[in-house]
# Entry
Amino acid sequence: MNTQAEPAIEKFPNKLAIYFAATRPPFILATIIPILLGFAYGHYHGFEINWLHFFLAVLAGIFLHAGVNVLNDYYDALNGTDDFNEERIYPFTGGSRFIQNEVLSRSQTRDFGLGLIAAVVLIGLYLVLHVDASLLLPLGLFGIFIGWAYSAPPLQLNSRGLGELTVLVGFSLLPLGAWLIQTGYFSLSVVLIALPLGALTCNLLYINQFPDRKADIQAKKMHWVARLPISVSRWGYWIISGVAWLLIVVFVAQGLLPTLSLISLAPIVLSFIAGMELLKYSDQPQKLEVAIKMTILTMLSHGILLIISLLF
# Structure
């Protein structure tokens, strides 16, 4: 385990830098891309973009993802999984380490996470009051709820084997929120075309759980990678990615996406490399850094290519 890059109080010039880094900013791209996808799909269908609403939607998404990241660190500190974790691949797995390395206290982490969620509520209320979309309020509340319930007791969805489903649902509904802000009405199509991106995001959670597996089992955080034998669970990655790629082809064939959207299949090569690495090193999880990076690149590049296909 390489801990050289892990956070230490002396690495930060001030408190602001500490709190900013505690949100794990690089990973928030995973939320920005689906929101952009929702707006791009609206553009593809001929709707104009209100740039103030666009900016606020992206900002709310950033704060929500940041808040969920921070609260996840807090709840994982409570259940002990990050303390137990000796096979983590920082910064990808094992949490942010801000609590474990005494950069922030548990209470500071909790209060910061709740403050970020409060900011989401304020932005959401503005959008609800200024956008004529009746579904926007319940969708926003549901998004905040599942973000909290993912790791917070008593629900702890990830510990009950529902983490992957939560991520799939959450990241597939982000484009719907952007669509509602832009158009004002519900569309099943935008939910469907977001499913592949949601599944590929789900795969990032899935592969990250292999280095964390022993610590999660010790902390009774029983997701499917923890529940199943490694020889079985490693195939879950292939199933999830296979479904994602197949759906893209189906949606193009059915006319939900333009033919140009087939370019978003290009990252299948990265997905294949990551899957092969997982098969090779599933029982040596500290060697999965390449596979994790390939999984991140797969998700981001698929989303970007899909957005490009809709805009042009």
Q: What stands out?
A: The CA atoms of residues 261 and 309 lie 5 Å apart.
